[in-house]
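Hello,

Our lab assistant flagged a job as stuck in the queue for most of the afternoon. It eventually completed. Since we weren't sure the result was trustworthy after the delay, we are filing this so someone can double-check. Below is the sequence as submitted and the structure that was eventually returned. Let us know if re-running is recommended.
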Amino acid sequence: MTEELSPAERYAAARLRAAEQATALASFREMYDFELDPFQIEACRALEAGQGVLVAAPTGSGKTIVGEFAVHLALAQGRKCFYTTPIKALSNQKYADLVKRYGADKVGLLTGDNSVNSEAPVVVMTTEVLRNMLYAGSQSLRGLGHVVMDEVHYLSDRFRGAVWEEVIIHLPESVTLVSLSATVSNAEEFGDWLDTVRGDTAVIVSEHRPVPLFQHVLAGRRMYDLFEEGEGSKREVNPDLVRMARMENSRPAYQDRRRGRAMREADRERERRQRSRVWVPGRPEVIERLDAAGLLPAITFIFSRAGCESAVQQCLAAGLRLNDAGARARVREIVEERTATIPDEDLHVLGYFEWLEGLERGIAAHHAGMLPTFKEVVEELFVRGLVKAVFATETLALGINMPARSVVLEKLVKWNGEQHADITPGEYTQLTGRAGRRGIDVEGHAVVLWQRGMDPGHLAGLAGTRTYPLRSSFKPSYNMAVNLVDQFGRHRSRELLETSFAQFQADRAVVGISRQVQRNEEGLEGYRASMTCHLGDFDEYAGLRRELKDRETELAKQGAIQKRAAAATALEKLKPGDVIHVPTGKFAGLALVLDPGIPAGRSNGYRGLDQHDGPRPLVLTAERQVKRLASMDFPVPVEPVDRMRIPKSFNPRSPQSRRDLASALRTKAGHIVPERHRRGRAAAADDQEIARLRTAIRAHPCHGCADREDHARWAERFHRLQRDTRQLERRIEGRTNTIARTFDRIYALLTELDYLRGDEVTENGKRLARLYGELDLLASECLREGVWEGLDPAELAACVSALVFEARQSDDAVAPKLPSGPARDALAETVRIWGRLDALEEDFRINQAEGVGQREPDLGFAWSAYQWASGKGLDEVLRESEMPAGDFVRWCKQVIDVLGQIAAAAPVDGDSKVARNARKAVDALLRGVVAYSSVG
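-- returned structure --
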């Protein structure tokens, strides 16, 4: 029984409750019909106390509640709040949520292609829009109290991540920053940086998933739990899976001996299933199995757009139906309402009727190649429970609010743009984080399909690890440099860049290396004392010995290279029918040359010094073996000892042929004793430098010391540790001021091109300051040199497309189709200017491999942009481009975005019509499927 509170305690508790009720948090909590989690309350309290916050929590845990509280707080204080997201789809979704709560008059939207009520007190926008506003000194920033950065872990993205850091660094000090991140393993480090650049920042980390996640493996008709509960909290990998993997892997893999070429995807899939002891269910069977177990709705991640579309077709062909008649009618009603603005002729081109059939059955694909309207319909139907099986690429995992009961992973390998690589623990966590709908599901389920060669231990490592470190991808750009210099001058700009998270992380790493250098220097002092000699300077004596050893090693290497070269030259002179003695190796002895094995396209004079690159003669040994020898079998030059004729009927695959010819070889040359190779005089014997060093060593006072070799051992340790220390010091030098050094190189190049003069930004620089994008400097140079003068709007759209488009897979074999006339000439001139800039970047040591500089323009979208801007129909444009509708729309919108920048940056006085034609090109592109607004 608890003791009753005293009157004073009751009074204190009442005052505390009254104070709590008076807070903005109390009124905010009343807006929700569920209790907030402890981490949400902690973050909201920190915000109300005036602190910035970093919230790192799992997907689906409700961290956006903290962002919504920032909106509530800003409105309560009569200030503005900007809510930023990484992708337009997320912006649209968040805009719709906030409009529902606060009304359309209080909420605005700003993305690359939409501007709705932009002066509202709450504006949802993509992060790039806010970055551009900061550089432009937009009036909209006045009265800004809070900025919410949703999915802030995007700053690790190597293409766009720098934008997040630019915003964080450049936001006015008066603005409170709310950073929402997925679970990252270095949240404290990121929080420390925010504390440095933004002031007092509370770091709130929550590992707790509101809906527990269970891990499974689907093998055959059975679904196995990945983990078996052990004693206490220890979890062991299911022994049934370990046993199954051992049995599978003991069976040799099938090899296709009929053909050497790579099999098609479908053939590989068929072979994989045939050779597996465990039956691997097809995609329709997987969905049926999940349906029977009550695990729908489910998202199946397939790391290929074609795979997603194929999966839907397979389910339709299998007659799969997940919706009843009522749900089908509701689906058709919603779809027809959302696509009412799309003309009928475009619907046919977009595959509308096949897509609708899948939706009515409760099955859909979701990937970047789809029309944005189609993707949004899929998202809406999935959230409403009218689509129960979605086959998606990993882009769906990036923040879109589409939680499911289950998530299925077909494979644990994906193409990363360069090669097929295992997915990381962070990627696995992000993908499976979709499983489990808060307030709907008691538990979520992650299901991995069994694959031959699967290691259950590796899968358990992916599922049990939460390592997803945040790594900065920040790099200065040309546009960033001119904007910074314009606002702050060169010196202050350099200091600002030094405050980036990239430099913060580099400096943190330097601290550890510096400590190691200090330890090494202490060790060096000890070694120096131990090698001290009373007769003289032992360091000097040890240096002479090292010089002698290095010189002898160098001469030995040169001798070995010359010997290999001589051996390769001798091999090149061999002809079929030469009888030789193989000097060493497994097949040493008498041999007959069948084929000299000189690499194709090489003749005498070829010097293959690498053992794999030199001639590789095919020989018949006296023991009847036909073998291809390598240059490593000939450490010394080989000369023919005789010759004999090889019969035309000789077949190296016939044992009888080999036996007869080997017998003839032994009879012909078996009695010949090979001439012994005479070793030449060593180069060291006549080397003057070696003679000088030996004389100096003998004349040194320390040479006569009784403890000389003991001192020498300490001197060798001293030298090794000193060499390691210097390497560490070079690493420190390489990591210190790296961002500022890159900025200095960019500044120097821009000065050379007359964009900057000291702290002054020239007219050329002011034009560059209005051009954002990967090829900002190239666009500025094209404007400066008048490349686009005289082009009509469609031709200008074609030329600008080269600045934004980047093919998913490079195809250098086929030249892209281009418009004729002025547009073709302008594109050629654009490429020429890029070549000049590329050479200049090389001179100034600006490295594209490090993410800085101008990549080559891609002309692959020029014809499509030209056709569309010229008024051609969607059917014709898509048929010629062989591009999915979603990609076509996305590239058109990016071209429109850059055209808008060019319209703002191009001169408006004089005879130039570029600005006017850029605006006309925007109007010409913004039609049909491109113009369908994703906001109602």
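-- support follow-up --
The delay was a queue issue, not a problem with the job. The result is valid. DSSP finds 34 helices and 26 strands in the chain. The two ends are 59 Å apart (CA to CA).
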